[in-house]
Give the backbone structure.
Amino acid sequence: MNMTPQNCRSLLESLAAPAPRYLMRIALLDQMIDMIPGTPESFLEIGPGMGDVSLYLTNRYTDIQATITDISETSIETLRSRFGDNPRATLAVSDFNNITGSARFDLIIACEVFEHLDDDNAAFQSVFRLLKPGGHFIFSVPAFMKKWGPADKYAGHVRRYEQQELRQQFQDNGFDIREFWSYGFPVTNFLSPVSKLYYYVQQRRTPLAGKDATQRSGTERSAAKKVRKLPYVLLMKPFFLVQDLTRKFNIGDGYIVLARKSS
């Protein structure tokens, strides 16, 4: 396990907007980061949202070089204010598929991104190209097309994913899967009716589609920000425990994957 600087808290303890589904995913992401061998020198985060993961990594690894891209100007402007003038962070409003040159990364993170893309297979190929040999890829997406609903429309999703098809996609694009977990159970299962109603109302109020909905989904956290002062890590610990016990069962709301670029 990598050593964490004493002044660097758990990823769970420094979130901008701790929504329940997001917390369940971050709890597993926290564990996956610990599984990355050695000390990565560079990472690329695609679609960082509020920037919690990138901020954590730049604090945890004091020499790491960060490249952060998003198609949303709002997201990148939010991150510029959070990162300040950190010289180790390069932020850009751009499509990661268009990154050229010789830059290669030890780690790439794409959480809740590929479900927005028309051509996700091309995106897998771009990630493979941009990783160093033996580099790691942390990835998450929503699961089960049967769960398609108002939240997907509100966020501008193109698809949800099925386990076997997703495993095959990693394999076909040159990745070895180290961990493949299901996240969200039991919280997202219990909250599903409330979530459907909430996003149905929100979509009726502010109907957006496609790219516009995608850009909104990364930074619109008004409801979650209201609970920032609650002891959310303590309150969620029983649910994190259940999730840990069931993460290898296909019963959650999404998938989180740690993969390695094949040699």
In short: The longest strand covers residues 131-142. Residues 187-205 form the longest helix (19 residues). Strands lie at 42-46, 65-70, 89-93, 105-111, 131-142, 175-183, 254-261.
